[in-house]
Amino acid sequence: MQHFKTLSSYLDYLELPSPEHPMLSVYNSKGDGYLPCPRESSPPITNDCYSISLKKFLKGDLNYGRTKYDFTNGALIFIEPRQVLQWDNSIIFEQKGFSINFHEDFLKGTELAQKIKKYNYFSYSANEALHLSPKEEKQIESIVENIEIEYQNNQDEFSKEIIISQLDTLLKYANRFYERQFLNRKEQSNDLLERFNLQLSEYFELGHVQEKGIPNIEQIANKMSVSQRYLSDTLKRETGKTTTEHLHLRLINEAKNILLKPNKSISEVAYELGFEYPQYFSRLFKKKEGISPTEYREKYKLN
């Protein structure tokens, strides 16, 4: 798989104009303008850059990470360094919107270098893109215009600080708008929770826990065609618990049933549930229930 270490080499591969800054590029179709057209197709590629783009009136399939997404409306998309990208010539662009690309080293020495890692939406798949209301779109576009002004001007010692500040503001607004999207998509959130629980039930009922060990949340997310981060964030907002916490609750409930079978030792219960080390199972059980597996068995075996 081809990997691009510099912003210039990545943009050159995309057949886009060279950037004004070696680690930052800004393209904006404001007014009646259009974005420059990237190459029509690409096999899987990766690069060391962040990308923030608003794509409008885009049709066709784009493979972003592990997910194919049909863009029928505009969406704000966030891509992190080393995310796998792939597309073909079935995509039809009407080049309206904006695209900001910056190398991860552009943030070195700034507070945003660490803060940006906390914005989970950079790890979301394309079908989890942020869909903006017209009002939200205007707010984002005004910030992008400020960034573009600094980008196009003769850059001085203040330029980078101002651009970083505007990027920080853009990401904060995106975080707010994602919260709104989560709230407005309760039905979708409930569906994800039901599908996640269904995947867990199937895993246990088919005996995979004995064969393969504790369920892998990333693999479950893949089967659900969502990113692990998005799934966990959605369940957290809907139930107050992350995917890991839901998994632990399921393991504890399974353990309770097995513990009441007196012919199994605590170690055997742990191995049956896919734990490699019985001590870890005991610690988790006590953390969740307030008593050890042995104490639980003694407490309830006569009931």
Automatic annotation (TrEMBL):
Keyword presence, DNA-binding: yes
Domain HTH araC/xylS-type: start-end pairs: 198-299
Keyword Protease carried by entry: no
InterPro entries the record matches: Homeodomain-like_sf, HTH_AraC, Tscrpt_reg_AraC-type_HTH
GO molecular function, one term: sequence-specific DNA binding
Pfam families linked: HTH_18 (PF12833)
Keywords: DNA-binding, Transcription, Transcription regulation
Protein name: AraC family transcriptional regulator
